[in-house]
Write a structure and sequence with these properties.
The protein is of the alpha+beta class. It has one domain (10-139). It contains 7 helices and 4 strands; from the N terminus they run H-H-H-H-E-E-H-H-E-E-H. The chain has a 4-stranded antiparallel β-sheet with strand order 2-1-3-4. Helix 1 (10-22) packs across helix 4, helix 1 (10-22) crosses helix 7 and helix 3 runs antiparallel to helix 4 (53-65). Residues 15-30 have low confidence and may be disordered.
Length: 140
């Protein structure tokens, strides 16, 4: 199955679960591939940047790229590590100087068919992502 621009924004929603879960659980158990050292490096890089709205989105993409979780988009699962380069490009091409939360709501709250975008965790649990993602953005 090929990737297209309609499917790529779903990856950004995964970031909410990565960051929100880190405060409550051992990330190596829930987020395979994401170590504390990698998370700290990415956070430090973000904090050294100017903290623009675009940089917030790119931080979330960078964070997600280090995991092995899956995004459920219109019935198809996508591995985050495989699609993250395309997601970064999508963000750079479609970002128009708007608040990160507005951009996420426009591009990542539901699929083009109107289905909620979900994340599948290693234990098989599938959850929606937008509420947690917005919460994570507010913490940056």
């Amino acid at each position: 199955m090929g990737l297209n621009a309609k499917k790529i924004p779903a990856l950004l929603l995964l970031a909410a679960f990565l960051q929100a879960g880190l405060a409550h659980a051992e990330q190596d158990q829930i987020y395979p591939g994401l170590t504390e050292g990698v998370r700290q490096t990415l956070r430090a890089r973000y904090e050294q940047s100017q903290g623009t709205e675009l940089r917030k989105l790119l931080y979330l993409v960078d964070l997600v790229s280090k995991t092995d979780l899956e995004i459920l988009y219109d019935g198809t699962f996508f591995r985050t590590a495989a699609i993250s380069p395309f997601v970064r490009l999508f963000v750079l091409q479609h970002y128009k100087n708007q608040p990160a939360e507005k951009w996420l709501r426009e591009w990542c709250s539901t699929s083009r068919r109107g289905n909620p975008i979900s994340v599948r965790f290693p234990n098989g649990t599938t959850v929606t992502a937008l509420e947690l993602l917005v919460g994570e953005l507010k913490s940056l």
